Amino acid sequence: MNPERLIEILNAYGADPMRWPAEEREAARALLACAPEVRATLREAMDLDHALRAWTNPVEPPFDAARLSARITASRPRPGVFRPLFRRRSVLAWPSVAGLAAAAVAGFLVGWAGPDFNLRDRTDAELVDRLALLSTIEDATW
Amino acid sequence: MQSKSDDDLMLAAGGGDAAAFGCLVARHLPRASALAARIVGSRSDAEEIVQEAFLRAWIKAPDWRRRADPAGGATFATWLYRVVVNLCLDRKRRPEPAGLDAAAHVADPAPDGLATATQRQIAARVASAVANLPDRQRAALVLCHYEGVSNVEAAAILDVSVGALESLLVRARRQLRTALADLNVEEAGG
After folding, report:
1. Distance separating alpha carbons of residues A26 and A44, to the nearest angstrom
2. Cβ contacts (< 8 Å) between A7 and chain B: which residues?
3. CB contacts, 8 Å: A53 with chain B
C-alpha cells in the first residue's frame, strides 16, 4: 500500500473503509493515519459520501415475496416444462419428437409407394416388414 | 428452509419445490428491488424487472448446478443481480431525473418521520445526479456504494475486471462531485 493506491481507493470507493477492497482494507486504514498527502482526497470523498447519503432506500419491495413466488410458480407449475425442445434430452420431449419423425417418414413412404401401398391388399408379413423399415429409419434419425 | 444455502434452494426449486423457490425470493427480493429501482429510477420499471429476473431464476432452476466455490451462496446472488443489472441496462430508457420516485424517499432524520422540504430537494438533486451518470457507471455506483456489494462481486455482476470496475467508480464519483459541488453537505447527510 502506498499513498497513490490509497488515493485511488478513496476516489473509487469513497471514505468508508467498509466499502474498500477487503484484501487492502487494513493496510489502507493504517496508511490513512500517517499520510497527510491523502487528506484532501479523503475530505472530498467524505463530502460526496455525505451527499449521497441523502438518497436512501428508494423503494420498498414492490410486492411481498410470498405473493411474487406464488405467482411465478403458479404460472409455470414445474420449471423447465417450456424449455426449448432440443436443448436437453427430456424424457417427456422424446415421444413427441419421435412421433413427429415417424409421421413424417410414414407420410413420405406412403406418398413414395403411391397406390402400391394399400393396407387392404398387403399380407401381415408385408406390413410387418414396412413397419420394421419405418422403425429402422426412425432409429437412424435419432 | 431458511438455513439452506442459495444453491440448495435452487436445486430444490429445480425439482419443482415451490417453497424453496419462495425462500429464495424472500431472501433476495429486497436487494434486487432496491438495485433495480436505483438503476432505472422508476418503481414500476423496477417491479417488472424484478419479476422478470425471478421468473428467469425459476426457469433456470432445473439446469442449476452446485458450484465448487466454497463461498457457496454468493454465486446465485451474483447470477441473479447480473440478470437484474442487465435487464436494467437493456431497458435503455433513461430515468427521468425529475420524475424519480426517489425524491420522496429521503433519509428520515426527524424522530416524528417528517422529512424537511430542504432534505427532499437535496435527495432529488442526488437522485438526479446519479440518474444522469452513464449506465454502467450508475450500475457500478449503485452496487458498490448503495447496495454494499464487494468489489469482486460487483465486477462479476457487471462482467468486468476489478480494475475496470474501479475505473467506472472513479469516473462516476468524479461526475457526481462536479454535479453536486454546490450542495451543502451539512444539510445533505441528514
Report:
1. 21
2. none
3. 107, 188-190
Cβ–Cβ contact A125 with B under 8 A? no
State residue A5's pLDDT score: 95
For A90, the closest chain B residue by CA position comes to B62
pTM here is 0.71
Over residues A58-75, the pLDDT tens digits come to: 556 556 888 888 888 887
Higher pLDDT, A34 or B114: A34
DSSP for B90-104, please give it.
HT-PPP-GGG-GGGG
Q: Which residue of A has its CA nearest to B47?
A: A62
**Over pLDDT 70: what percentage of chain B?**
78
Contacts of A76 in chain B (CB under 8 A): 55, 58-59
C-beta of residue A53 within 8 angstroms of C-beta of residue B188? yes
* Whether A62 and B46 lie within 8 Å, measured CB to CB: yes
Is the CB of residue B128 less than 8 Å from the CB of residue B95? no
Report ipTM for this prediction: 0.80
| CA-closest candidate to residue A56, choices B53, B151, B119, B139 | B119
B16, pLDDT greater than 90: no
